[in-house]
Design a protein that fits this description.
This protein has helices spanning 2-20, 27-39, 44-55, 60-82, 98-102, 104-126, 131-145, 150-159, 167-191, 197-224, 235-238, 244-266, 276-287; strands spanning 91-92, 95-96. By secondary structure, the chain is mostly helical. It binds geranylgeranyl diphosphate.
């Protein structure tokens, strides 16, 4: 069962994160970074990273620090996204946002610290194993997180807020802001097992597909969910954002999500039953309420 697997993999990663965040100096920085990391979201991206490594028969021990690093990068992006200059949010993962607790300046620095520490962690890990394979894995994460990836999507999202957004712009924003880190998590796990071009392409198609589904569901939850979501809802409408929910309506958006989810799962058929857990995970994310 995928839910139990997710819990087990998340627990393995949380234990390693506790070691990686044993307080160093200055305490304020390490406390503020770990405050947001340990708040714990769904841990989707690290779980994808583990499952992709397993899919190709790589040693899960080799990807543990990569999974932790991916969660650090994701957490930095949430801290920065919540800042007054961006989304100006006060609630995240059911807790006050980082800047509410530590102040704006320290929250910016906590995000900066997490991003760099993620790469420090992955590179130290790479030196323990086959460095070439690990460098390919780390490059996947770097490309997904940076100016070719999540940051590019975020820039356009911010620049176009409150303005009319074309279909192509909406696709660009979500493909980069949301799907790239999902794809990066998968491909970095896959790289540890020397994948073929066909395997890489199949997993990328799956990742882009579930990335789109994830975003559509995120937009729908922003409209229909209550405070149990752990973050503020109704923000998209308040900011006059064009979203999948505003463009297609709730039912239309969910129908699109179901269709895209089926296509995403089919992309993994070349792996046979080895991909069953990744397919179950796609279904779980489609039905999520958080
Ligand atoms: C600041 C460079 C920079 C990027 C921010 C993460 C992000 C990019 C924006 C957050 C806004 C948002 C709602 C994006 C949609 C998809 C998304 C990334 C949702 C949050 O991820 P979850 O639901 O969070 O996996 P948890 O807390 O479960 O880890």
């Amino acid at each position: 069962m995928i839910k139990e697997r997710m819990t087990e993999l998340a627990a393995r990663m949380d234990a390693r994160l506790a070691e990686l965040f044993r307080v160093k100096e200055p305490k304020l920085l390490w406390d503020s970074m770990y405050y947001s990391v340990k708040a714990g979201g769904k841990r989707l991206r690290p779980v994808l990273n583990f499952l992709a490594a397993e899919l190709i028969g790589a040693d899960p021990a080799e990807t543990l620090d990569i999974a932790c690093a991916i969660e650090m990068i994701h957490t930095y992006s949430l801290i920065h996204d919540d800042l007054p200059a961006l989304d100006n949010d006060t609630l995240r993962r059911g807790n006050p946002t980082n800047h509410v607790v530590y102040g704006e300046a320290q929250a910016i620095l906590a995000g900066d610290g997490l991003l760099s520490y993620a790469f420090e962690t992955m590179l130290a890990n790479a030196m323990k194993y086959d460095a070439k394979r690990h460098l390919r894995a780390v490059s996947r994460v770097a490309a997904a997180a940076g100016a070719h990836g999540m940051v590019a999507g975020q820039v356009l999202d911010v620049a176009l807020e409150g303005k009319g957004v074309t279909e192509d712009q909406l696709t660009f924003i979500h493909n980069h802001k949301t799907a790239d880190m999902i794809v990066g998590a998968l491909l970095s796990g896959l790289e540890l097992g020397d994948p073929t071009a066909e395997q890489l392409a199949a997993v990328e198609r799956y990742g882009r597909g579930i990335g789109l589904v994830f975003q559509i569901v995120d937009d729908v939850l922003d409209v229909i969910a209550d405070e149990s979501l752990g973050k503020t809802t109704g923000k998209d409408a308040a900011a006059a954002k064009t979203t999948y929910a505003s463009k297609y309506g709730i039912e239309g958006a969910m129908k699109l999500a179901e269709e895209e989810n089926e296509k995403a799962k089919a992309a993994l058929d070349i792996f046979g039953s080895a991909a069953d857990e990744l397919k179950e995970l796609a279904d779980l994310m489609l039905k999520r309420r958080k």
